[in-house]
Amino acid sequence: MAAAVGWDPAHPDGDRLLLGAEIALTTVLGLAMLRVSTPLEPLASAGQNDLATPFHALLHAVMTRDNG
Predict the structure, then answer these.
(1) Which of 66, 59, 64, 65 is nearest to 23 (CA)?
(2) Which Gene3D superfamilies match (predicted)?
(3) What is the mean pLDDT of residues 7-22?
(4) How far apart are CA 61 and CA 66, in angstroms?
(5) Would 36 be classed as within a structural domain?
């Protein structure tokens, strides 16, 4: 995931991009676990369209070089 946005261990932003990828991955895993194990609404019944915008915002926040 980090490589898809230009991660390079030698680049000064390398650690930040890798951390962003790890945050995105753990968020997705946590979401999947909650959706399967609990009836937490509206998450449990949210469809792809309901999740797309928040996921896009999350990925943009943690996976772009220009976010400071």
Answers:
(1) 59
(2) Tetracycline Repressor, domain 2
(3) 78
(4) 9
(5) yes
